Amino acid sequence: MIDPISISTSEVIRPTLTIVGRSVKLRDYVDKKRSYFIFKRVFDIVFSLGFILCVLSWLLPLLAILIKCSSRGPVFFLQRRISRGGRSFTCYKLRTMVINSEADTQQASENDSRITSLGSFLRKSNIDEFPQFFNVLKGDMSIVGPRPHMYSDCAKFASILPGYKFRNMVKPGLTGLAQVKGFHGPTSTRNSVLIRYHWDNYYIRNIGMILDVKIIYKTTIQCLTAVIRFFPERFLVNKPRLDDSLV
After folding, report:
1. 4 alpha-carbon distance from chain centroid
2. Can you give the pTM of this predicted structure?
3. Which end of the chain is more exposed for a tag (fewer CB within 10 A), N or C?
4. What are the structural domain ranges in the chain?
């Protein structure tokens, strides 16, 4: 059996509109996984509750102090996003930007001036997403699944790619197959939308606990690596190269 975690983007055929158009077949396929979804919900409750008690119980107060000291505004950023079946829910995040009027309509971009210094670290390490463990515990999200979109993004992506909303057949996740493949951050081009759609499609059609565990493991490695790499990159980025210092 092929391991989807090890497959590169170029090795997988891009999904076609014909596949997405057969929504009844996809719906039936998801319905056949009822025992999996029951076990997945139990896993989500146990995992999220354990993480909240063991990690967030001490980490959130510390981060709250740092966020309040770094910029004016609330600790948390609350935003309406789309869950399974198109249902709306309030998604929790740590605030990583200064207060601005475009937060609900404009995606963050590379070197976005709205992002604070602390916010840059929280974003690169994905720690800003940690409050979403409360969303998982409530049942709005799952540990693994397609990432939840803002309404404006969902409408825009659906206009680019008909059938895009098929991803709403399952709960959105804290992490997903597209994310462990390296597709984070803004979706500024049609190709970036297509590739993420492609991996979300692949995940739903191959959904299972083994795949979920592999995605969680890969996400953990990526998160730890981002934390380790952030500070050297941060402090060395403006240092002159050796040949530049020789006059």
Report:
1. 18
2. 0.80
3. C
4. 4-233
